[in-house]
């Protein structure tokens, strides 16, 4: 589970300056780009599994089709889970820095 955690122990000790705000925005955009990459990989695996199901002359490829279909679902679930986890972490970090700015 350590792979799924994102800097939860970081606490901002001073207000967010423009550089920090831009870094948060870059990270948010990179997070979205990574989600799209997971979705793209998932769709490619789905297309591969559909292609393997269409091969009637090779019955042994049916197992490979099921494996590809399972990995497609796993990639999609992991991508969405990691996206939401990092988005939540960034939101908490940003709000914590906003509350420190008021002090």
UniProtKB/TrEMBL annotation:
Keywords on this record?
A: Membrane, Transmembrane, Transmembrane helix
Please list the residue ranges annotated as the DUF202 domain.
26-85
Q: How does it sit in the membrane?
A: Multi-pass membrane protein
Subcellular localization(s) per the UniProt record: Endomembrane system
Q: What is the protein name stated in its UniProt record?
A: DUF202 domain-containing protein
Write out the GO cellular component annotations.
endomembrane system
Q: Which Pfam families match?
A: DUF202
Name the residues that span the membrane. 35-55, 61-81
Which domain of life does this protein belong to? Answer: Bacteria
